[in-house]
């Protein structure tokens, strides 16, 4: 019984670390999808921003993480900065941007 309580305690302490890692893994998955759609890695950036700063980030929200407290924002680099991210780049939880 004491081992079970200790395991739960250790798990509770590591959750914040796992939550941050999940944002990085979501960003990596979205990046792979964008690259597989023919966009060069140097032609875009994905930024993780707090929910309340997503509108000010100057890009399109393509994902979210940390229980929807963080947004992943796509920005096109270079000449074609006004073009949109491919529809298949976001996660299945993300709807089209409005």
From TrEMBL:
Coiled coil: none annotated. Keywords: Signal. It holds the Pfam family DUF1161. The keyword Signal applies. Residues 76-98 are annotated as: Disordered. The keyword Ligase does not apply. Residues 85-98 have a biased composition (Polar residues). Residues 1-21 form the signal peptide. InterPro entries: DUF1161 (IPR010595). This is DUF1161 domain-containing protein.
